[in-house]
Structures are given as structure tokens and as C-alpha cells.
Amino acid sequence: MTPWATAEISETISRDILGAAVEERCSPTRPGSPKALTCEASSRSLRRRGSGCGISRARGFLIFSFFLFFYFPCLIKLEVLEELPETSGKTARRFFFNLTSIPSEESITSAELQIFRKQVHGAFENNSSYHHRINIYEIIKPATATSKDPVTRLLDTRLVHHNASKWESFDVTPAVLRWIAHGQPNHGFVVEVVHLDKENSASKRHVRISRSLHQDEDSWSQLRPLLVTFGHDGKGHPLHKREKRQAKHKQRKRHKYSCKRHPLYVDFNDVGWNDWIVAPPGYSAFYCHGECPFPLADHLNSTNHAIVQTLVNSVNSKIPKACCVPTELSAISMLYLDENEKVVLKNYQDMVVEGCGCR
Q1: Which domains does the chain have, with CATH numbers?
Q2: How many angstroms separate the CA atoms of 320 and 170, rounded?
Q3: Residue 57 has pLDDT above 50, yes or no
Q4: Residue 285 clears pLDDT 70, i.e. is over it
Q5: What is the pTM for the complete model shown?
Q6: Does position 298 have pLDDT exceeding 70, yes or no?
Q7: Which of 17, 58, 188, 251 gets the highest tally of CB atoms within 10 A of its CB?
Q8: How far, in Å, CA of 150 to CA of 192, rounded?
Q9: Which of 17, 75, 68, 26 has the alpha carbon at shortest distance from 46?
Q10: CB of 285 within 8 A of CB of 266?
Q11: What is the rounded CA–CA span in Å between residue 54 and residue 64?
Q12: Does residue 280 have a cis bond before it (omega within 30 degrees)?
């Protein structure tokens, strides 16, 4: 596995552990269920924190590849919501998020615009009339006195059905990177809802891009659109430099106890098999033993699952580490006596350990 793939998996795991993307998985369609209660509590807790980066820098998730980074999310509340002229079958709003709360030293890796959509009563999966499309645009040039329509660039789009209440996450990474990394002006987003069923007025209330007249502030704060950015503190250090700072005896000690193949000779006389095995009298089987430390090195032949499990173990000790097991086995040939006392030559598979790894 390449270091970049490891970092990508690690960042994904860090999102779930930190809870910044919990809204994507939470649906209030089954109130009272354990999952719904957990998701609701997590989502409410996040949104009550308000804007801010690094839900806690101390809770940042360690990512190991060639570099060591702290990854954490920034939760940025909607600051400006502006109504745009409504055209036939379309509702549009301008969203503006103030990105100055993101520290200048942070390096943004991804950004998501999260919007809540509420189930429309009577909408069924097989009913094609209950569909609409959500388009997310970056504003390149705002509207002027001479030009009423802003110049925009499409970032993401999705066709959604009205039969479920859930959060939708849209990828707005290119726009946020242009604003932060390249210094281009931040004019905000245009969120456009295209009502494919123009006759159904209820469909227009499906996507919560603005506060309703009778909705209180606390309720709206739980459902208002949110911009979530993911990044690291930019203080990564190459692992080989860290290793140079460690004492040589510690390096040797760590390597000594890491997962590897050890010698094991099996004497058939000792295990009582010499009465039916003619030859050989024994063989070198070898065995695997050792630690699978975090982070998993390349020579440990680890799988994606083992990498993920080790990452989770580093923040939750209840999850066991990956195990040192054989990853490659070979066969041996043996002469033995069958039930008729005849000598038979047979090739037995998976008898010799050729390689070990963390799985």
C-alpha cells in the first residue's frame, strides 16, 4: 500500500472518529432507535459548538505515512443567506461562510457543504414525481447593477428523492482551496434547488436552505447548512527523521520484537507421527510471532483491513491490534503408510511458513 493511500484511509477514519461527518449518516426517519438517538446527540453536540476549527486539537487524529500529521475538522456556520430571484421551477439562495476562522497555517485537504432535506409526506420510492435536483455553484463574480445574475461555476450536483430525511454532503473542495490556498476572493456559493415536480408545492419545502417563518432559532440551528473543512496543521515530519533521533538500541529492540518468521523444526517422532510417516523424519515448519506496532511498516505485508484496525486501536484500546500470522505458505512431500500398509508419496499443501505479516 502506498503512503498516499494510507493517508487517504487514515483521513477517512479520522472523520468518523472525530464525528465531524456524523450528519451524513444520521437520519431522523426512525426516531427512538439506538442509532437514531446516538446520531441525533452527536449532530446536536457538533452544531451547538458553533464555528471553529479543531473540535479539539488535542483530539486530532495521528496520521502516519511518510509524514506525521494532526488531522481535524473545522465547522463553519452559515453567516449570510441571501434570497435570489426565483425562476420557474427553481429556488436559489446565496450562502456565505466566513473562512477567516481557519488558521493560516492549516492546510486544507477537503471541504463539504452539508444541507438537510426533510421527507415529504406521501413520497414513495417508486413515485417518479417526487424528485428534485440540487446544484451547488461557486460564485466567480457577484451580481452587479448592470448584470443581475452572478457568474458561477458548477461544483457538485445530485438528484434526490423526497422519501427520506437526511443530510446531503456536497464536495466544494476546489472552491475552498481557491479561496484559501490561492487567495481568490470568496463570494460564496449559490445553492439551486430544481423542482422537477412543479405542481407539488410540498416539494419546495423538502430542502432546508432557509429558515421557515414559524421555526424557532434553536430548531433552525440544528438544520441550517454547514461548511465542514478537513485539514492538518502543516507540521508534518518525515518518519525517517524521527527515527534518526531515536537511540539505535531502541530501533534494534523494536525490530527485534516486530512480526517476523521464527525457526520451528517439527520432529515427527516427538509428536507421535513416526508410526505412519516414513519420510522425512521431520521438517522446518517455521512460525510467525511478534508485534504489529502502529504505524504498520511496509515490510509487515499488512492488508487495508489491518491498517484500518491498527489505526482504530491507536485511539480505542478495546479494539485489538492486527495479528502476526502467516501470509505465504508452501508445500512439502511426504512418504506415508496408508490403511493397506502401502507406501504412498503425497504433496501436502500449506505446511511451511514462507512469509509473515500483520492481518
Answers
A1: 3-232 (no CATH), 246-358 (2.10.90.10)
A2: 34
A3: no
A4: yes
A5: 0.50
A6: no
A7: 188
A8: 13
A9: 75
A10: yes
A11: 19
A12: yes
